[in-house]
Amino acid sequence: MLLLAILPATFLPAAVQAQVPDSKGNYYRNDASVLAPSRFNKLVPGFLWRVMVDELNCRQDASLDSPINRTYQVGDLLEVEVYRGGSDEVYVNPVDRNGRPWMPVRGANTEEKCYVRANSRFIQPVTAK
Hints:
Keywords: Signal. The protein is mostly beta strands. The strands form 4 sheets. It has a 3-stranded antiparallel beta sheet with strand order 4-1-9, with no helix packed on it. The protein contains 1 helix and 9 strands.
């Protein structure tokens, strides 16, 4: 633990570092500094993100053309999906045909997963205090 306190941020695991969007506000990764509390946990805890707009549509697929599964309100917490990839978790978000990233949001079960635009105008990572 003491070792983490003296290492530069570039040596810390991605989940401990603050998530930073690109110059257009896009998040191409879904890792953040706060994991979901036990009431949200699935097999692997997801990262928590906060809705920043009055209403945010969560779509069936990673596309504006996809049907809306549910709508979130400003301040709602989203638990995003963490995929298994080989021997490690995968935090890369899918992109639509225009190259815009979408965040996979967990529902009560796997069929209820939906996607929100992964952009700082709409969502921002919950950060540790």
